[in-house]
Specification:
The complex is a heterotrimer of chains A (479), B (519) and C (368).
Chain A (H helix, E strand, L loop, with lengths): L11 H11 L4 E2 L2 H6 L6 H8 L9 E3 L4 H13 L4 E4 L16 E4 L6 E5 L4 E5 L4 H9 L3 E2 L12 H7 L6 H4 L2 H4 E7 L5 E3 L13 H4 L8 E8 L1 E2 L3 E9 L2 H13 L6 E5 L1 H10 L7 E9 L1 H17 L3 E4 H9 L8 H8 L1 E11 H16 L3 E6 L6 E11 L5 H18 L15 H7 L1 H14 L19
Parallel strand pairs in A: 2-4, 3-4
Antiparallel strand pairs in A: 1-2, 5-6, 6-10, 7-11, 8-9, 8-10, 12-14, 12-15, 13-14, 13-17, 16-18, 17-18
Helix pairs in contact in A: 1-4, 10-12, 15-16, 17-18
Chain B lengths: L9 H11 L4 E2 L2 H6 L6 H8 L9 E3 L4 H13 L4 E4 L16 E4 L6 E5 L4 E5 L4 H10 L2 E2 L12 H7 L6 H4 L2 H4 E8 L4 E3 L12 H5 L7 E9 L1 E2 L3 E9 L2 H13 L6 E5 L1 H7 L9 H6 L7 H5 L3 H11 L4 H9 L4 E9 L1 H17 L3 E4 L1 H9 L3 H10 L2 E11 H15 L4 E7 L5 E11 L3 H22 L17 H5 L2 H12 L13
Parallel strand pairs in B: 2-4, 3-4
Antiparallel strand pairs in B: 1-2, 5-6, 6-10, 7-11, 8-9, 8-10, 12-14, 12-15, 13-14, 13-17, 16-18, 17-18
Helix pairs in contact in B: 1-4, 3-20, 10-16, 19-20
Chain C lengths: L5 H9 L9 H6 L6 H12 L7 H7 L7 H4 L7 H14 L5 H13 L7 H8 L11 E4 L2 H6 L1 H13 L5 E3 L9 H5 L3 H14 L5 E4 L2 H13 L8 E3 H10 L13 E3 L3 H6 L4 H10 L5 E2 L16 H4 L1 H12 L9 E4 L2 H10 L5 E3 H6 L3
Parallel strand pairs in C: 1-2, 1-3, 3-4, 5-6, 5-7, 7-8
The chains are: A alpha+beta (479), B alpha+beta (519), C alpha/beta (368).
Chain lengths: 479, 519, 368
């Protein structure tokens, strides 16, 4: 699928029309802005920016403040066949927000209003440009929590969560973003404003939310959402447990969930990850370490923790105690800060391959991927999210940067990683999404589903203006 | 009785016969008759009078997904409608062949393909009957936790296609929560398979697009669903609250404390009277059906033909005196029944808090009996509808869902809108963090089937108007079919265009279950 | 100039922007460029030769209030403001600073203060001449913002001191009225140093300097020595000075303060000078109702938008930041905002005139 040729996107006519809608201050063609909107947090882009390169820049950036403005902007761009890339806070790890065909980046962050919080229904209605941490702060002030804590929490937006189908650290306890969504308002490429309806549950046909959830900006711009929140927990209990082998640890978590326990977090690190993580806390660890966090009512938290410990003990788990786990929890976001010193001082690049599968395949997937990746890079393995039926697995990979073939090497590692995941029966992404990084592999693995997506794209966005080049390559000259 | 011959072309039927074998295709009139209706009450009425609705041209029983795919391709080529069929228990006319065509009965595809105990997952053919699957799972120590009242007479494929929810959904989830992966044949004949995984971020979730599409986008042939260990213990408790507001507030508090009762149901005052809060351990649902008052039909009934009055009186019996009795008992309060199941100590913890919350909100503890009674009789109510139709009345259910702040207003407005047209009672169930469903049962009568259909439609229109004015969902778990198709455009607004786009994409020839869902 | 910040610039470029949700400029603008990450990335690209240092790049470095909230959310404790200030020096050297800043500097150089007024004369009209003692060892430094905008607060300061029988505090004569922070913040290091030297001469005799403005406190205490001008090392914000004395009961409270108050920690008093408890102690001493706290308070207090030269170079953004801070003031019961910094007060008043804004010492003054 090639995008039809466009008129020159920096033309004055476009600029004037956009300024008519948004005013001069909310449209920018500045060089500094175009540079900063040329990348998200895809580690591959770090390799480029290291050399001073930002190859994919938009022609301009706009900041609408209402759904109405988004609608008008899209109508203008659709008519002029100008690409539009919806943008939250640019924390995606797969390059989904990179403007491959120039055009307009539609930054939603000035559309961050909380319309209302309904404590009775524990529902919050807000515009999607709001940063996760701000949304959570506001909920906390009403005694509520979203329970959604991705590592990018302070630098990602509600719209980004919905568009990429995110899951936070406490997904085991609170659910994933799709469990939290009630309804949304989405603007299509032609500017038409659509919404899904608010109701706790309906049997009125397909769930249209799920067409736009995970659509990564290619089917519409999500402008507002109703989300459900939980009561802030009364209590929180922490424990660290060590297991001699990863598959034993996996079995322990599986059994806990099977029994009906619902930890907020059940995160199992393999030996390599445990020793690195705990070393940062000043603790030496040789084995796999399971970090358990239960939160909720005091009585329930105690009860579930007791039962969890009994299971762990039965499988030979050693109780590391509360303090280490609590300290890890306090520094649970610290891992992400490692990218900078590693890159700056040691010319090493950190990245994460994260997949998911059912329990019966978990140990096999872990072993297969570890084996494949270790041939090329250093690997730290974690099982970060557990469900009764299966789990996610995340592999932190550390590779060398700073040579001429950085990009080629990066691509080779990822081809290896995705092939290993596919061959071992894992899903190609648990929560980070697809972006530029995984699309080709997904197309090979699920051709019918991908064709379906492309078909819907053609119907909902016939001029291919929304985030073009992601679902199908941009042919040169067509942009 | 004359049954018109089918419209499907000879060529097409021959080609399909070649795919499935002549043993698995039927052109017999009696088969066509049997497959012409599901359990929607309008069809029941018609049958009562010996009338039949639109009929399929043939009934086909494919053996496997490949055969389904081949048939779909043929149907697309010959522009012949194709209606996937589980066990025909839908109440909205979802499988009625409005434009003729082929009924594709999937019940031969009923194997349990894999039981993955470690992963708490079962993979089965879409044609397996719910209760069969459940019994197999029980034998191995598991449960699906999915118990619609039709569980004896409905299939896994039907659950998925209709987006069903069972009575224990507050604990085990609804069907869309249970899906891990599925296989479906699109209207193009292509086979879509989604990876079986608890969770992935791979773009749109096609599972959730197909679930609820009621056969209009694809034919689901196989599914991997989550299961749970069979519960170690099950506990029952019931409370009486002064009114629906207090009772629904109790449910809301229970949900917001993250409790997961297997079932939690609140009966309105009328329903409570009929269900009974006493400790008698008998089938109280008998009394309900014998005690429906005719007071609400008053003038209405008097105006009908004498013959029908006799018929109606025979149904309602000499129990008119119960009207007064009922009004006297109308202040009896609302019954809440709850059941918790799972690990003993976890269940005890949840139940203890639920009891505490109910008491704090003014509920009076009535012990386990009423809840047990509900549990023991929970499927029996379905048998009672025969009696109603036998006597020429029509019974139907309206089940809607909305947020807590709108729940009691919805209940009151729908009752208000309908009260001059039908006898109506309700219970609240299927609770969530942000709201719950309200399930109305209504009975109405009319001198003939045509008028009954009109009365039925009038009740639905009034209820739907109230529902959509409040902003509630027009159906919580029964679905849309064709009987509610006229409400779809108001329900979804501009999003219907997206549904239409999905339809054109997945079923370009427009052969899959045409005439349904407002498409 | 920027080479010494090489590590900080690299780190921020590769970092997953974890601090951006706290940056008041990022929140007000919604623009990726106007985040710590965005600004530092530009400097990295300049360093790589991939981007020319030009007016646009320089303008981006002026969009920082120097509030230091970014450091609060950085595991590496990187401080972005010093990098921005160094960049601004480069901007000034190459005449690429914002137009508004250039105008400001011209104005300042003519008048030696941002207001263009004869601030010394103004000050003299406020207080009895006996308070102006050039040989005094304990000197109150009002600061230019206080003199021009909040003369009553200066009067209140001395009323409170008098009520506490503290008669050894003299008032600085304000002939060089400004501590110079606006120059420092906008990259005019040379002008700042000259101003600092004059201040050094004027304040050489003081053994203790007390100011009502945290920026002045910090500038006199830390920035002047960095410019080679060493005053006494006993430089305090007024609340630091008063709190222990009031705790000893030296303030004669005639009637408690009855209205609801919410306290705003100024960035320079809190994050820069680590003074959190003293203003609260003072207020709790005299207030009937407990002081309300913002949800972003103490170490994480949110910025008023008044620092880093933003009111000069980006006045609309300054107002947006202040308005965001004020949303909590409008929630719940009606209340007034109390703080301990005249620049914060000015920022809030300009953004929303429906909010009553008070200095801690104003509250004390109403109770004696």
């Amino acid at each position: 699928m090639t995008r039809k040729a466009t008129r020159k996107t920096t033309n004055v006519e476009l600029l004037n029309q956009l300024r008519d809608v948004l005013g001069g201050r909310r449209v920018s063609r500045g060089e500094t802005d175009r540079l900063n909107y040329g990348r998200d947090l895809w580690p591959r882009s770090l390799l480029e920016v290291r050399q001073g390169q930002v190859p994919h820049q938009p022609d301009m950036i706009v900041w609408p403040e209402t759904t109405e403005e988004v609608s008008r902007v899209l109508r203008i761009c659709n008519e002029m066949r100008v690409p539009v890339v919806p943008f939250g806070a640019g924390s995606g790890l797969c390059g989904a927000a990179q403007p491959l065909c120039g055009g307009v980046v539609l930054d939603t962050k000035r559309m961050a209003r909380i319309e209302r919080i309904v404590p009775e229904t524990q529902m919050i209605v807000c515009q999607t440009g709001i940063i996760g941490a701000h949304l959570e702060n506001e909920l906390n002030r009403h005694g509520l929590t979203m329970g959604h804590f991705p590592g990018s929490f302070g630098t990602s937006t509600l719209g980004g969560y919905l568009a990429t189908r995110s899951a936070g650290m406490a997904a085991t306890g609170y659910g994933k973003i799709e469990d939290m969504l009630i309804s949304m308002q989405v603007v299509l490429a032609d500017g038409s404003v659509n919404r899904t309806r608010t109701a706790p549950r309906r049997a009125t046909g397909p769930d249209f939310n799920h067409l736009f959830l995970g659509s990564e900006g290619s089917l519409g711009v999500i402008t507002s959402a109703s989300m459900r929140a939980h009561m802030l927990p009364e209590a929180r209990a922490y424990r660290a447990l060590s297991f001699k082998k990863m598959d034993v640890g996996l079995a322990a978590v599986r059994q806990m969930l099977r029994l009906g326990l619902r930890p907020a977090i059940a995160r199992l690190s393999d030996e390599a990850d445990a020793s690195t993580t705990l070393h940062a806390l000043g603790v030496e660890a040789k084995d796999c370490v399971l970090l358990l966090v239960f939160e909720g009512r005091v009585a329930r938290v105690d009860l579930e923790m007791k039962k969890a410990l009994a299971i762990a003990r039965e499988l030979g788990g050693r109780d590391f105690g509360e303090a280490t786990a609590q300290r890890w929890y306090g520094r649970r976001n610290s891992e992400q800060y490692r990218q900078s010193p590693l890159m700056t001082e040691e010319k090493l690049l950190l990245d994460t391959v994260e997949v998911s599968t059912v329990w019966s395949n978990a140990a096999h997937l872990y072993t297969a991927m570890r084996k494949a990746l270790s041939k090329k890079v250093s690997v730290l393995g974690v099982m970060p999210h557990a469900y009764p039926e299966g789990c996610s697995l995340a592999f932190t990979i550390i590779s060398r940067a700073g040579s001429a073939d950085d990009l080629a090497a990066y691509d080779a590692v990822w081809r290896l990683a995705l092939d290993a995941a596919a061959q071992a029966g894992g899903a190609l992404s648990h929560a980070h999404g697809i972006g530029r990084l995984k699309f080709d592999r997904l197309a090979r693995q699920s051709p019918v589903a991908v064709e379906l997506l492309r078909g819907m794209k053609r119907r909902l966005d016939p001029n291919d203006i929304l985030n073009p080049g992601k679902l199908a390559p941009c042919t040169e000259g067509a942009c | 009785m004359h049954i018109a011959p089918g419209q499907a072309s000879e060529k097409f039927l021959r080609a399909v016969t070649k795919v499935v074998g002549s043993d698995h295709l039927s052109l017999a009139d009696l088969d066509r008759l049997s497959y012409s209706r599901d359990l929607n009450p309008v069809s029941n009425l018609a049958t009562n009078e010996g009338r039949f609705g639109p009929m399929p041209d043939a009934v086909v029983w494919p053996a496997d997904t490949q055969q389904v795919a081949q048939i779909v391709k043929l149907a697309a080529e010959h522009r012949t409608p194709l209606i996937p069929f589980g066990a025909g228990s839908g109440v909205c006319g979802g499988t009625v062949p409005l434009r003729g065509g082929i009924i594709l009965d999937l019940k031969r595809m009923n194997n349990i393909i894999k039981l993955d105990e470690d992963s708490l997952a079962v993979t089965a053919g879409a044609g397996i009957i719910g209760q069969h699957l459940e019994m197999e799972l029980n034998r191995k120590g598991y449960t699906m936790g999915h118990f619609p009242s039709s569980v004896y007479s409905s299939t896994l494929g039907g659950y998925l296609a209709a987006r069903s929810a069972g009575q224990l959904s507050a604990k085990y989830g609804k069907i869309e929560d249970m899906i891990l992966g599925l296989e479906a044949v699109l209207g193009t004949g292509e086979i879509l398979r989604t990876t079986a995984t608890p969770r992935a971020s791979l773009g749109p979730d096609w599972n959730q697009v197909l679930i609820g599409s009621e056969g209009t986008l694809a034919i689901i042939t196989e599914a991997t669903c989550r299961i749970r260990p069979y519960p170690a213990e099950r506990r029952f408790t019931s409370f009486v609250f002064p009114g629906p507001s207090e009772g629904t507030e109790a449910i809301r508090q229970i949900m917001r404390h993250e409790l997961r009762p297997a079932a939690i149901r609140l009966y309105d005052e009328l329903d409570t009277v009929l269900v009974g809060t006493s400790s008698k351990n008998e089938e109280s649902s008998e009394s309900f059906w014998n005690a429906i008052p005719i007071s609400q039909f008053g003038n209405f009934v008097k105006s009908v033909a004498p013959g029908l009055i006799r018929r109606t009186e025979r149904f309602f019996g000499k129990r008119a005196d119960l009207i007064n009795l009922l009004e006297k008992f109308a202040t009896k309060g609302c019954l809440l029944v709850m059941t918790f199941e799972g690990e003993s100590d976890l269940v005890a913890d949840e139940e203890a808090l639920a009891v505490e919350l109910c008491e704090k909100l003014g509920g009076v503890n009535h012990g386990p009996e009423a809840a047990l009674r509900w549990w023991n009789n929970r499927y029996h109510v379905s048998y009672k509808q025969s009696k109603v139709f036998y006597h020429g009345a029509i019974v139907d259910t309206i089940e809607m869902a909305t947020t807590w702040d709108k729940l009691v207003p919805l209940y009151e407005e729908v009752r208000q809108a309908v009260r001059d047209m039908a006898f109506i009672m309700a219970h609240f169930s299927h609770a969530y963090l942000d709201g719950a469903s309200v399930y109305f049962t209504f009975v109405t009568a009319a001198p003939n089937v045509e008028k009954a259909e009109q009365a039925h439609r009038a009740v639905w229109d009034a209820a739907a108007t109230a529902c959509q004015r409040i902003g509630a969902a027009i159906s919580h778990h029964h679905g849309i079919g064709y009987t509610k198709a006229r409400f779809m455009s108001e329900e979804h607004g501009p999003m219907m265009r997206v549904y239409e786009a999905l339809k054109r994409e997945m079923d370009p020839a427009g052969i899959l279950n045409p005439g349904k869902m407002g498409l | 100039m920027l080479k010494k910040f090489h590590k900080e610039i690299e780190y921020c470029t590769y970092c997953p922007k974890l601090c951006r949700f706290a940056c008041p400029v990022a929140n007000a603008s919604g623009n990726e460029t106007q985040t710590p990450w965005g600004r530092m990335t530009l400097l990295h690209l300049v360093g790589e030769g991939a981007l020319n240092w030009n007016r646009e790049v320089s303008l981006s470095t002026y969009r920082c209030t120097t509030c230091m909230l970014c450091r609060e959310y950085c595991d590496h404790e990187i401080e972005v403001p010093p990098v921005m200030l160094a960049a601004r020096e480069k901007a000034v050297a190459e005449r690429m600073q914002p137009q508004e800043s250039a105008e400001f500097e011209r104005f300042f150089s003519e008048r030696h203060n941002p207001m263009g007024d004869d601030l010394a004369a103004r000050l003299r009209t406020l207080l009895p001449s006996s308070l102006f003692n050039p040989d005094a060892q304990v000197v109150y430094f009002p600061g230019c913002v206080m003199i021009y905008n909040y003369p009553q607060t200066i009067k209140n300061t001395f009323r409170v001191l008098e009520a506490m029988d503290i008669n050894y505090v003299a008032c600085y004569d304000a002939e060089v009225p400004c501590c110079g922070v606006p120059l420092h913040d906008q990259g005019y290091q040379e002008a700042f140093t000259k101003n600092a030297q004059e201040l050094g001469r004027k304040l050489s005799k003081a053994k203790v300097i007390i100011t009502g403005c945290p920026s002045c406190t910090y500038t006199l205490k830390v920035q002047l020595p960095q410019a080679g001008v060493q005053l006494t090392d006993r430089i305090y914000h007024l609340t630091e000075f008063l709190a222990p004395l009031v705790a000893e009961g030296k303030l004669p409270i005639r009637r408690p303060y009855a209205k609801r108050l919410i306290y705003h920690d100024p960035c320079y008093l809190g994050r820069y000078l680590h003074v959190f408890d003293q203003p609260r102690q003072l207020l709790n001493e005299v207030c009937r109702e407990p002081i309300e706290e913002f949800s972003w308070h103490r170490q994480k207090s949110y910025c008023c938008g008044g620092g880093g030269g933003i009111p000069v170079t980006n006045p609309v953004m300054a107002r947006d930041i202040a308005q965001k801070r004020l949303t909590e003031v409008h929630e719940g019961d009606k209340k007034s905002l109390v703080t301990a910094c005249p620049s914060c007060m000015r920022a809030f008043e300009k953004a929303d005139d429906s909010v009553e804004v008070l200095d801690v010492v104003d509250v004390l003054a109403r109770c004696i």
